[in-house]
Amino acid sequence: MKNTTKQFKHTIVAIDVAIVTIEGNELQVALIQLKNEPFKNYWALPGGMVGSEESIKDAVSRHIKMKAGISKIHLEQLYTFGEVDRDPRGRIVSVGYLALSPVEKLKLKASEEYSNIKLFKVNAIPSKIAYDHKEIIKVAITRLRSKVVYTNIVRYLMPDEFTLTDLQRIYEVILGREFDKRNFRKKMMVIKMITDTKRKTSGGAHRPASLYRFSGKGDYKIDFI
Amino acid sequence: MKNTTKQFKHTIVAIDVAIVTIEGNELQVALIQLKNEPFKNYWALPGGMVGSEESIKDAVSRHIKMKAGISKIHLEQLYTFGEVDRDPRGRIVSVGYLALSPVEKLKLKASEEYSNIKLFKVNAIPSKIAYDHKEIIKVAITRLRSKVVYTNIVRYLMPDEFTLTDLQRIYEVILGREFDKRNFRKKMMVIKMITDTKRKTSGGAHRPASLYRFSGKGDYKIDFI
DNA sequence: TCAAAAGTGTTGCAAATACACCCATGT
DNA sequence: ACATGGGTGTATTTGCAACACTTTTGA
Question: Would strands B12-23 and B92-100 be described as parallel, antiparallel, or unpaired?
């Protein structure tokens, strides 16, 4: 990172979003590689300015659509980072967001601004991270881990239909510990967060598994796991 | 509220803070009465602009010191409100904060800007509330209620020394339900959040009560209540 | 001696955990 | 027939909730 003079005179509101997904039994976050100073070649969260005629949430959606090719994605606001010197280009206040999507729905694409965009395991993010984005990622993962035990937030990481083993694997990846299969299934049945589709998998060299989907449409809170 | 033309050209970052305390067995929040349009005589949360050379948190502390005469107060960021039309004067993004203090430490004082500042019961806030401040208050109270059951956040609402009955009352006021005295005391002992000072109250026409203080200095999380 | 709040244990119930074997399919 | 993941029940432990009486002080 090089020292540069400040480019912006006024305080600017920006957003940065941690797009989190699960691939290969690992939590992953999307990072872009910056082309320009002051953080040339550093990795950063996708983000950008909030326009003067758009809400903060709309700005997040707009940037996600540009960089990850997805317009319907679960979003939640994390925290607003407002240290004076967090951005060497000037006074930029950034609102951090968490976005969750099953990996199949992401279409990461580089643009003129960025030489590259790809997923990194959250346990192995590159050391050259721009700004305070490492901290934002940490807040994002902490939030996900904390909400997973009292909400149905995992639904945003799952495909429409899934087996109970798939679901258990997602919980295990997020929380980093294993569950007993029988106890896990019992609990899922009790809280009736999911519904049996009466369809089954086929093709595996093993007994077919029942396919489930999440019940209802919204979010809810309850104690489980 | 009257219609006015926009006063500010650029997006501005402001803060609004819900200063919450307990008085008379009720949760209370400090509100100021505005002197000027577009919300003349409406009640609002204390708040104001974030200076270009101060962090967001410093701006919150500064405004609290001005309006509530207290410089050491527990603060936590709640949410950033970024709808385009939330302020008729222009594009103002506001970072909402929760501040907690025992009532004895607050010294609410009116200023030139505000004709009045006082505490309102959160169950009886006036109907003439400016901006989206009713929503901010709601987020503040929800956050407090939710954190009280898994953190030691009540410490910021208590005086330095207190009896177990005092402490139980605070939990009951915040959560709006009653606890069994024996179970409550048992739990407080188990989690060892508080320490016996070996001192006792005196003066009441009843048996003296042991005085306690919170252990350690920081925050922690654990399941209780 | 009375009023008022402080203080103190036990029991029953519900929820969480630990644990092992048979089933259906594809190769 | 065998390898692979799917599917199921019970016993034990632990944590939570319900419950009532005695103690100490000041008036």
Answer: parallel
